[in-house]
Design goal:
The complex is a heterotetramer of chains A (479), B (152), C (568) and D (240). By secondary structure, chain B is α/β, with parallel strands linked by helices. Chain B contains four helices and five strands; from the N terminus they run βαβαββαβα. Chain B has a five-stranded mixed beta sheet, covered by helices on one side. In chain B, helix 1 (17-28) crosses helix 4 (129-151). Chain C is globular. The chains are: A alpha+beta (479), B alpha/beta (152), C alpha/beta (568), D alpha+beta (240).
């Protein structure tokens, strides 16, 4: 009989996710699992609503990336209406999406991961936190807050509301941009560039101290993400590309509506989060990681041929040197990729705003139902997000399939924590170092699991070592 | 100006006691040196509210899982120490928020945290009888606290 | 028809009936029909015919006799003898009755219902006086009992004012439930301005367990029509509507026949009794909505609209059907009119209590030995009704409560058995007279379950126009269901009470504002039962199945259940 | 025009003879909440929000349908009345599925505005979560979402009394009542609907909406009713 170790974030509210580490009879780690136990049933209760209400409903899936859900949803709506939206509307939606990247990536990097990354895992635990970060890098900490705020502010300027807005609608957007608003956004950009430059510099300097982690987080897998028709870095539209660990093109550019030919979702009875896998590589097999692919910042930089802006392309070149020249396979570098994407977003916003055409007030196309199916695919900060709707002739939703970014990474996250457990678990006792790395390993993907639910600020971890007869041999609690 | 931040999720029963207490204090009125904010969870942007020029102190109002009841169950503690960020969430602890606020304003900000123990954190509205009792005690305690810090 | 011709008709009919050696009266109202009266009647006719007794024996289908649970009932009436009433009569048994009385000349001893039992002795029949004796479908039969003399009297001898005065003098109050003084209502309609006025008879009886009006319509339709015609004369109306619910097909059929016969005899229609008074009556069938028993709901239904009440004022007396002054009275109220005119308001006022005059018909139902229809003087005590007329509680059980007034009424506990029944006493006990449903409950009834039953009825019958009744009854039912299934907490009881008061005070019509009555009265007299359901999760009489658990206690409860489940 | 005197909340005021209590109150600066009432439609006294206490009356009276009488003494905001109004709104919130955050009428909803004015931010009563007919968006322009309906019948009355089409009606009774189109068919197949849109504009919530509206995008215009009715009375459009 196998022994099970359970790492459970004991929130005062029923947990949203927990980690179990399974040992085999010899005491070695056989597998680690990330359980997502929050069941939300969005796919069920969207049925029966008109498709044009969907952006308002689905953006409530998340409080961190509502913008991505709204955009995937309005794109599915555009497809149902069968319209090409006014060009300016598309540009405004893109700015909207890049602003979302800035705020979401900034939160992940500066607020959640920076203490570990900039101070190191071996830093005194008592000060390896925000306080320590502030003491050592006050400027980074201060700028981080302002960068996140800036992303939120751009969204607010465009949509009058930073969270759960209703600005993006099927057919376009509700209000155009005006010169005053444009100037306000433009005024914020220089500080953003400055912040990101500083962060990149610090992060790159820190790689040396993470040699172990870099290899532990390193495993082969496919990568998936949208690219422009020319193969460039893309976040809002484009073709879905799959590449291998060595950089080979598996599928150069799949049209959005054909995603089901490439992605299938498996379920496990211990998690509500589904397990999408790459279908052409044979049937689902979790233990062999067949069909496993990664999405998100790391994957996007791996699948694209180029970024398309001068500074981001420059960074991309140095990023690729960390891998085999084309592909970076260690999930540790999600952090680096995130910073490059913030830089890219800033450059693209600046470039798009420069053209006076952006102030045009023709921003919404009108149409009824012209297609009974609509697929909206965007790159959310955490990866490819797919909204797939079927409607009746009156536009009432009859079926919904949502594949969220965190889902795509499900297999990879399980793989990462298995690797960490194998490397850092000593005997049957859990060490502080292992705990830190399990936490960090999950955080590298910046998963969105606990959205809209409040948990105690500090999530203590409790680890129980349970012998085969069910008694607790050792209990380890931190926090 | 004292900033009161009541946080928690009112749809998870006792978790809503923080916002409930904030609501009671806001409704009571009678003081113009209080600013009350209620949120579901603490997010980084709040640091900017904490760092506003007119804010001189902050009191966080929150629920806790201790399950105790009675007068002494409710505590007001000065905020101290900082813990690492949460593993899976995208929210902040009061202490983390305070660190950022102090960074932004460039000076220390006196801060306290009041916790109201609850027992029922399941789905649903309304507080358990125990949390309700604790809420009443917390209300009384805050009023005393408010009088005291004004004297300082 | 003239008054003289009416007298001739009566005499001819009386003589004809008196000529028979024996009369066999088969109760032909709905309860007896449902227990087989039709087969009994046919068997009896065949037997009479077979024995060539047609000339000697009269077989009549009559209205209701009263002890409905004992039907089919057959009464044997012979000149100079006491009536003999047989109960539970079968087609075979009725032949034996015939043989015994006519061949052997000796009454049977089996199945005899003694005539001197309190069930009959304590009753005083005014509206139902003819019921057990006449053929409801025969105009002659009604006339032979003095029918239409009151109408001819008012047309020839009285002014409308005098008629109204007589009704006022009688002290008659509306029998539909509210108890509004009938004479006063007539006076209001009489004085109301309007070229056209209407008379409406409310026969939309809908309380569960109540069938007073059905019986009155089925047993003596001419009596009600006569009352309507007198009212029409008194207020100056020439058109009447008889609103009968479609679930009462026999009542509607007999009324339709009665109207036709009366019109043919020129007792209804134009120039009634040779006077200048015209009065037509049309029947309107209700589609079975309880709320159409509420007068404004009924009026909108007659006008062909969705049967929903509207706020009063304006009262129908001023603005009713198509905006014209309209007199709307209950069937039983109209049934009292002819006797009052015939015998005088003073006579009527001598019956009953100070503020509630005359008699009232009740449908006795529930846990009581003699279920059936009774007519008693106002002021009789509940104890007399239950233990004497009703014959007590069967099966050795004790009396627990009496529910009066149907879903709009309340429950009266044993402590008040000696209260004289009248409008005001019932109101002070938190109930109402209602139309006369009287459901007796024994000590095996759960009062919360009773409240839940009536609330379910009210929720189902709410028309949905006003919010308190539409949503309030649904919410109250929800809380009562929770209390009954064990998932309620004390807070729910408070919400229930608060809702009950709110619905009572803010609803638009009578259905709404009386719907909390069963809940409020049981809360008032049986609060301990409610608390036992909630605090102890126990139904004191074992009616409710406590299968659910309050959500909040589920966490503590689950492990226990799992333990018990694994043991089982 | 003769004038009568009424006392509202202890203050004497006047109103034209024949005015309703609601008109009398509003003319004297006392605002009463209403939902089923709409200037230009026959009042029905159904929502019970405008109930007032009149001295000498046995029951609370709906101000919208009660005629003001000389010397009436009226209380409009007693503790009890305010409590009942709040409960009425709570009952409405519990009756169907009102989800403001994704509602087209967010921001222009009369129900929500009243809730905000009276301080009702949630319902103490349990949500009934009824099974409702599907959303009807078969019409060329309008949509009907039963989740948000409060059964005020303003749409039915506007369609019947102002437009004269009587396309809309109510089926079922009590808590089961539902707005229907013609003899219970889809709106798109209605041959009586004139597509005038009056029903949509008089709907106090997001039940009736312009097709394609997204969150908070509905803006309703109710003033036109009085304009139409007034114009008809004054024969503004008479060519004879």
């Amino acid at each position: 009989m196998a022994t099970m170790l359970r790492i459970e974030p004991v929130t005062r509210i029923e947990g949203h996710a927990k980690v179990s580490i399974y040992l085999d009879d010899s005491g070695a780690v056989s597998e680690a699992r990330l359980h997502v136990v929050e069941f939300r049933a969005f796919e069920k209760f969207c049925v029966g609503r008109p498709f044009y209400e969907m952006p308002g409903i689905t953006n409530r899936i998340c409080g961190i990336c509502p913008t991505s859900h709204a955009l995937a949803s309005v794109k599915a709506g555009d497809a149902i209406m069968g319209v090409a939206i006014p060009p300016v509307a598309e540009k405004l939606r893109r700015i909207f999406n890049w602003a979302q990247y800035i705020q979401s990536h900034a939160l992940s990097f500066f607020h959640l991961s920076a203490p570990d990354l900039l101070l190191g895992f071996d830093h005194d635990p008592a000060t390896r936190n925000v306080m320590g970060l502030i003491q050592k890098f006050p400027d980074v900490a201060r700028k981080g807050i302002r960068l996140r705020g800036m992303g939120q502010e751009i969204i607010r300027i465009l949509a009058d509301k930073s969270i759960h807005q209703a600005w993006a609608v099927p057919g376009g957007v509700r209000q155009p941009l005006n010169a005053e608003k444009r100037a306000a956004i433009q005024a914020m950009l220089p500080e953003g560039f400055e912040t990101i430059g500083l962060a990149l510099e610090l992060l790159k300097k820190s790689f040396a101290q993470f040699a172990d982690e870099l290899t532990t987080y390193d495993f082969p897998s496919l990568f998936a993400g949208l690219v422009t028709h020319e193969g460039g870095l893309e976040h809002y539209d484009g073709l879905l590309r799959f590449t291998g660990s060595d950089g080979t093109l598996i599928e150069a550019g799949v049209a959005n509506e054909r995603y089901r030919d490439y992605i299938e979702e498996a379920s496990e009875d211990w998690s509500y989060l589904k397990f999408p896998f790459f279908k052409p590589h044979g049937p689902y097999n979790r233990s062999e990681s067949a069909g496993m692919y990664r999405v998100g910042p790391l994957a996007r930089l791996n699948v694209c041929d180029f970024a398309g802006t001068p500074r981001a392309d420059e960074e991309l070149a140095s990023f690729r040197k960390l891998g085999n020249g084309r592909t970076v396979t260690s999930s540790f570098h999600y952090h680096y990729a995130r910073l490059i994407e913030i830089l890219f977003a800033l450059e693209k916003i600046a470039e798009t705003l420069d053209d006076d055409e952006i102030l045009d007030d023709w921003v919404r196309a009108e149409a009824g139902v012209n297609r009974l199916k609509g697929i909206g695919m965007v790159e959310a900060p955490r990866g490819t997000l797919i909204h797939d709707y079927s409607v009746d002739r009156n536009g009432i939703i009859t079926d919904v399939n949502l594949i969220v970014s965190t889902g795509h990474n499900n297999l990879a996250m399980n793989r990462t924590i298995t690797n960490i457990a194998r490397k850092y678990l000593q005997g049957d006792s859990v060490t502080e170092g292992m705990l830190n790395r399990v936490e960090h390993g999950i955080r590298a993907y910046d998963p969105c699991l606990s959205c809209s639910t409040h948990a105690v600020g500090r999530m203590p971890l409790v680890i129980r070592v349970i012998s085969p007869d069910g008694s607790v041999v050792q209990e380890f609690s931190r926090g | 100006m004292l900033l009161l931040i009541g946080y928690g999720n009112p749809l998870r029963r006792d978790d809503g006691s923080g916002p409930a207490l904030a609501g009671m204090l806001a409704a009571r009125g009678g003081r113009d040196d209080l600013r009350v904010i209620t949120v579901q969870q603490l997010v980084p942007e709040l640091a900017q509210d904490l760092a506003a020029a007119d804010i001189t102190a902050v009191l966080f109002l929150d629920a806790s899982v201790s399950g105790c009841s009675g007068e002494n169950a409710v505590s007001i503690q000065p905020l101290s120490g900082v813990s690492p960020s949460p593993v899976l969430g995208h929210h902040f602890s009061p202490a983390e928020l305070l660190c950022y606020a102090e960074l932004l304003r460039g000076a220390a900000l006196p801060a306290w945290q009041l916790t109201i123990p609850g027992i029922d954190f399941g789905y649903g509205e309304g507080l358990s009888a125990s949390a309700e009792k604790n809420l009443a005690a917390a209300f009384a305690k805050v009023l005393v606290f408010l009088r005291k810090i004004t004297l300082q | 028809m003239t008054r003289e011709e009416l007298r001739t008709m009566a005499m001819k009919e009386q003589e004809q009936k008196a000529a028979f050696r024996c009369r066999l009266l088969v109760c032909y109202s709905s309860p007896c029909l449902s227990s087989g009266a039709e087969a009994v009647y046919k068997a009896l006719l065949a037997a009479v015919h077979e024995r060539n007794l047609d000339v000697e024996v009269d077989v009549t289908r009559t209205g209701c006799v009263g002890p409905c649970s004992r039907g089919p009932l057959v009464t044997v009436r012979r000149p100079g003898c006491e009536d003999v009433i047989y109960q539970h009569v079968t087609p075979e048994f009725v032949v034996r009755i015939l043989e015994a009385h006519l061949v052997e000349n000796r009454p049977l001893t089996e199945n005899v219902l003694p005539g001197d039992v309190p069930f009959f002795a304590k009753q005083l029949k005014v509206v139902l006086a003819n019921s057990a004796s006449i053929d409801p479908e025969s105009l002659e039969s009604y006339v032979s009992m003095g029918g239409f003399t009151a109408l001819s009297k008012v047309l020839e001898e009285m002014t409308p004012e005098q008629v109204v005065e007589e009704i006022k003098k009688s002290g008659l109050r509306g029998r539909g439930g509210g108890g509004f003084p009938t004479g006063l209502k007539w006076d209001l309609v009489r004085k109301a301005q309007g070229e056209k006025k209407y008379i409406v008879a409310n026969g939309d009886e809908g309380d569960p367990g109540a069938y007073m009006d059905r019986t009155t319509m089925e047993s003596d339709p001419f009596l009600v029509l006569e009352g309507m015609a007198i009212a029409a004369y008194a207020v100056g109306a020439d058109q009447g509507y008889f609103y009968v619910r479609a679930e009462y097909p026999l009542a509607a059929e007999r009324l339709a026949k009665a109207i036709k016969k009366a019109e043919k005899a020129e007792i209804l229609g134009n120039r009634i009794f040779g006077s200048s008074f015209n009065f037509r009556v049309d029947i309107r069938l209700g589609a079975g909505a309880f709320v159409c028993g509420e007068e404004t709901g009924l009026l909108t239904s007659i006008m062909g609209r969705r049967g929903q009440p509207y706020p009063r004022p304006p009262f129908p007396a001023n603005s009713g059907l198509w905006g014209s002054p309209t007199l709307i009275n209950n069937v039983e109220t109209f049934g009292n009119i002819a006797p009052i005119i015939n015998r005088g308001g003073d006579w009527y006022a001598s019956i009953g209590t100070e503020k509630s005059k005359g008699t009232k018909i009740f449908a006795l139902a529930g846990e009581i030995s003699n279920t059936g229809l009774i007519e008693v003087p106002m002021g009789i005590t509940l104890r007399e009704v239950v233990y004497e007329i009703g014959g007590g509680i069967p099966g050795g059980a004790g009396f627990k409560a009496a529910q009066t007034g149907g879903p709009s009424g309340g429950c009266i506990p044993a402590d008040y058995l000696d209260t004289p029944i009248d409008y005001d006493n019932l109101a002070s006990l938190g109930s109402i007279m209602g139309s006369g449903g009287l459901v007796i409950m024994n000590d095996r009834s759960c009062m919360v379950d009773v409240a839940r039953f009536f609330m379910d009825f009210c929720r189902d019958e709410s028309c949905g126009k006003c919010i308190p009744c539409r949503v309030g009854t649904s919410q109250m039912l929800g809380y009562l269901e929770k209390i009954c299934n064990g998932s309620a907490v004390m807070e729910d009881l408070e919400k229930l009470r608060e809702l009950a008061e709110m619905v009572q005070e803010t609803s638009l019509c009578g259905l709404g504002f009386t719907s909390p009555n069963p809940t409020l009265s049981t809360l008032r007299y049986f609060r301990a039962e409610y608390e036992a359901h909630i605090r102890e999760r126990r139904c004191p009489v074992g009616v409710c199945v406590m299968s659910e658990v309050p959500l909040r206690e589920l966490v503590a409860e689950l492990p226990r259940r799992i333990r018990e489940g694994s043991k089982a | 025009m003769s004038v009568i005197t009424v006392t509202i909340n202890g203050i004497e005021g006047s109103a034209p003879a024949g005015a309703t209590l609601l008109e009398a109150c509003r003319q004297n600066g006392v605002e009463l909440p209403t939902l089923c009432h709409l200037e230009g439609l026959t009042p029905i006294g159904a929502c019970r929000l405008c109930l007032v206490q009149v001295e000498g009356a046995r029951r609370l009276l709906p101000a919208c349908v009660t005629e003001a009488q000389e010397g009436m003494i009226i209380q409009t905001h007693t503790e009890k009345l305010v409590k009942y109004r709040k409960m009425t709104l709570e009952l409405l919130l519990s009756e169907r599925n009102h989800i403001c955050s994704v509602c087209v009428a967010n921001g222009s909803c009369e129900l929500r505005t009243l809730c905000a004015q009276l301080g009702v931010d949630h319902s103490r009563f349990e949500y009934r979560c009824p099974d409702l007919p599907p959303i009807d968006t078969s019409h060329e322009r309008n949509g009907l979402d039963h989740n948000r309906c409060i059964s005020c019948t303003r749409c039915i009355r506007a369609c019947d009394q102002v437009e004269g089409a009587h396309t809309l009606d109510m089926e079922g009774r009590g808590i089961e009542n539902r707005v229907i189109i013609d003899m219970h068919q889809t709106w798109g197949s209605s041959r009586t609907c004139t597509k005038c849109g009056k029903c949509v504009n008089v709907c106090p919530t997001g039940t009736l909406f312009w097709k394609g509206s997204t969150v908070a995008e509905m803006e309703k215009e109710v003033g036109f009713l009085q304009w139409i009715r007034g114009g008809r009375e004054k024969k503004t459009w008479s060519y004879l």
